[in-house]
Amino acid sequence: MSRPDETLRAIFADPVRANISWKDIESLFRHHGGEVSKGQGSRVRVRLNGVRATFHRPHPQHEAHKLLVKSVRRFLESAGVRP
What we know:
With 83 residues, the chain is of the alpha+beta class. Strand 3 (43-48) and strand 4 (51-56) form a beta hairpin. It is built from 3 helices and 5 strands, in the order H-E-H-E-E-E-E-H. It has one domain: Metal Transport, Frataxin, Chain A, CATH 3.30.920. The protein has helices at 3-11, 22-31, 66-78; strands at residues 20-21, 35-38, 43-48, 51-56, 63-64. Helix 1 packs across helix 2.
């Protein structure tokens, strides 16, 4: 199984996980054909399958908190990406 597949399953796992690396989430977006660009400050803009979203890169830690994981999950669902 590939790392993007593992990341996708982790994002859709219940209960919501809070230990998913943001770097892995960005790689997942790119793996599915998404465009990721840096916004102002810690913002990250993502476009995937015609759907756009802006996220805040977690800092100082490098792992997404639960609310961010839920936002990423909703974005992926709206872009037609599910495990």
